[in-house]
Design goal:
alpha/beta, metal-binding, binds ribulose-5-phosphate, binds fe (ii) ion, Aldolase_TIM, eight-stranded parallel beta sheet, carbohydrate metabolism
Length: 219
Amino acid sequence: MTTPLICPSILASDFAKLGEEVRAITEAGADWVHIDVMDGHFVPNITIGPDVVKALRPHSHLPFDVHLMIAPVDPYLEAFRAAGADIMSVHPESGAHLHRTLRQIRTLGAKAGVVLNPATPIEGLEWIMDDLDLILVMSVNPGFGGQSFIDDQLRKIETIRVKLDRVGHPAILQVDGGVNDKNYHKCIAAGATAMVAGTAVFKGGPSMYASNIKTLKGL
Ligand SMILES: O=C(CO)[C@H](O)[C@H](O)COP(=O)(O)O
Ligand SMILES: [Fe+2]
């Protein structure tokens, strides 16, 4: 079994100390920094904009994995890329032309990800495979941290894993929402290669980050 990438979601960090928190997870062995961008319209919560991403950029050399939960998303891609986003993941529901959006992300020099909500079917993936670096399966409905993992989504991960392997597609298969020390191994067994975790990484404060990350890696 391969060791998954751990992508702590800073949504669960102390927002009064964001720079410190990003440095702390970087030193604790995180692979990517997952940044949840919410607009209070596509999802019922408001979080981080490009200026905050830009301010955080000097605090870590790790890839910034920016999960865009905003609609429309297209007008903001350039700003997030300029602010330091390395991976930008979008929901099909956040714009009329997903294919164009994914191409635009790559044209900007970032890796392109598509995010599937719990109710979003996987059938549409077939037509965007050539334009994808990452597929993110949401194991909660997006909008908030600290929700419970929806077990059904393991079947979605498994199905996508089979499809990727069948054609040798190199996309990263990421899971986001409610990932913890009780279910991480199920995500890995289903074929996920990257796991987002907010609550499970930040619980216990900075002295726990390294051991929390190690646990999720199965080490
Ligand atoms: O995209 C998200 C919510 O929309 C977050 O990345 C996710 O909820 C992570 O937090 P937790 O691990 O606490 O569930
Ligand atoms: Fe997320």
